[in-house]
Amino acid sequence: MSAAPQQPARPLAVLLAGGGSAGHVSPLLALADCLRRRDPATGVLVLGTAEGLEARLVPERGHRLALVPRVPLPRKPSVALLRLPGRLLASVRAAERAIREAGASVGADRADVVVGVGGYVAVPAYLAARRLGVPVVVHEANFRPGVANRLGARLTRYVATTFPGTDLKGRGGPAELTGLPMRTEVTRLQRSTQRAAGRAAFGLDPDAPTLLVFGGSLGAQRLNTALAAGAAQLLAAPAAGRTPQVLHITGAGKAVSPEGLPEGAVYRSVEFTDRMDLAYAAADLALCRAGAGTVCETTAVGLPAVYVPLPVGNGEQRHNAAGAVAAGAARLVDDAGVTPEWVAGPLRDLLLDTGGALTAMSVAASRSTLAAGARDGDERLADLVEVAAGRRAPRAGGSAA
Length: 401
Description:
Blueprint: E1 13-17, H1 22-38, E2 43-48, H2 54-60, E3 64-67, H3 79-104, E4 113-116, H4 122-132, E5 136-140, H5 147-153, E6 158-161, E7 169-170, E8 173-174, E9 176-177, H6 184-187, H7 191-201, E10 210-214, H8 221-234, E11 245-249, E12 267-270, H9 276-282, E13 285-288, H10 292-300, E14 305-307, H11 316-326, E15 330-332, H12 340-351, H13 357-367, H14 377-388
Parallel strand pairs: 1-2, 1-4, 2-3, 4-5, 5-6, 6-9, 10-11, 10-13, 11-12, 13-14, 14-15
Antiparallel strand pairs: 7-8
Helix pairs in contact: 1-14, 3-4, 4-5, 7-9, 8-12
């Protein structure tokens, strides 16, 4: 049996790369928080762009941010493709400076490890790490990996995935199944004990069946317009039982104002909240997209969901949701099927638990042991980061995706 690597005297230095959307930024921040919980002296630097959400979210979370020029990867022949080499080189050099800056924060000449989660920022980080001889860890949030992480996986043996079955392998073989790093506000949430606090925080009725609607960090126009148009019928008083209510998180700049609501109807609409944990606690059912973060968070907290996969891209959102749907904890509805009539009919029936369907989903959600709902994804990925940095011995027979 080989001995565990000797712990160096100085703290660990890590460069975290990924940005643009909350789907990239949130896991990175959860990992950064986890590494700092293990050792507050850990040197954490996040690599991002001035245009992405990370420009706001990273400093708000108390972490340092280094910027690189945004370099989209053209998928078709174009003028942008001809300009790519020069623009990419500038970003790689900026990433190299960030790698050195991350190391300097703990008295080293460079970071011990670079962690990427995909997106525009990850490619220059992966290439810079290769040029400087720094180990790379790749984490893929979605079921179907993107171009950046397919490239990164070719450069390292340290590859992790959120969902079983993801087709991504490192140089050493199959990826390790870690789940998704999530905020402790979510992973430690007990919805039953926080329900009253959640409903009070948003001004909701403490006892009414509650629908939570959200479309991710950028909102979802299809969900917004269908809910606004169908809200009057959705919130009509039933012949017997309790009247439902809605908490609608529309996305920045996408506020809605439903018309014709019944007198006394509770329809709370906000553009953004930084307390999604309380929104989850307040809800009996979620209507949402099926990004990796959304699927993992709703699964982790045991919240029944109706997922509406984004109808563009490579179809990863449908695959992200497949496990929860198969387990009976969620349903899947096509984007085109979310109409005002569907909101006023099938969705209302589900929320009011007509026929006991919502009760069955709630039971399945609370019992779920899906990898997507693993509450220790941050710890598992932090372990892999320490292995890559030579601070921890590899686990024998680590989980393969």
